[in-house]
Amino acid sequence: MFKSVYSTEWQIKLGGLVTELYLLGATHVYLFGSSLHDYHQSNDIDICVDGNIKLQEQLSIGDKFAKAFEKPIDIVHASCMDMNETIMKHGILLTLDSQNRACSATTHIPLPHTLIDMLLIELKYIEKEKRNLLRATDSLNDVLHRHQYSDDTELLNEEIDYACINVVD
């Protein structure tokens, strides 16, 4: 599907990587906009002007990626964002290096290893949070079941607090 939408070499490479990340469970991939600056034609989009991509062109590329994958992909201009904040918000940040290889935008180490490690760490955290949430839900259901005929709201609140605190990994 990706190759039928994108014909240039860098789009196919990046598309394969994004596909792999989504297969691993990523929900949002963030592309580093200025990394695309050396590519002058991408289908009907002109990528141009002083080594930068115009904002509307960035959005257009991001929109095409998003439609192809039916998942959220954002492209941001480098000068418009703080790298650490972006990683904290979205977990995953991609760019292309000078040899047209996909790499981590923070370390510039070619992928897959750096980015996939970052992704797996994020997925483990999400799984841990899910487990905690399920445990908390079970504990709360037990507490509510035990207190369904009781009027002692103070004891109920204490047990709810205890149930929530003691499920964390």
Q: How do you describe this structure in short?
A:
The chain has about 170 residues and is an alpha/beta fold.
Structure, explained:
- The protein folds into 2 domains: 2-111; 126-165.
- β5 and β6 (102-104) form a beta hairpin.
- It is 53% helix and 11% strand.
- The chain has helices at 2-5, 9-24, 55-69, 83-90, 113-146, 153-165; strands at 29-32, 41-42, 45-46, 73-76, 93-96, 102-104.
- The longest helix is centred in the C-terminal third of the chain and has 34 residues, at 113-146.
- The two termini are 40 Å apart.
- The strands form 2 sheets. It has a 4-stranded mixed β-sheet. Strands 2-3 form a two-stranded antiparallel ribbon.
- By secondary structure, the chain is α/β, with parallel strands linked by helices.
- α5 (113-146) packs antiparallel against α6.
- The radius of gyration is 22 Å and the shape is elongated.
SSE ordering = HHEEEHEHEEHH
Strand content: 5-15%
Residue ranges: pLDDT <50 for 5 or more in a row? 1-13, 30-59, 74-93, 109-117
Report the biggest beta sheet as strand number plus sense, adding barrel if it closes: 4 strands, mixed
Domain Polymerase beta nucleotidyltransferase: 28-95
Protein name: Polymerase beta nucleotidyltransferase domain-containing protein
Organism: Didymodactylos carnosus
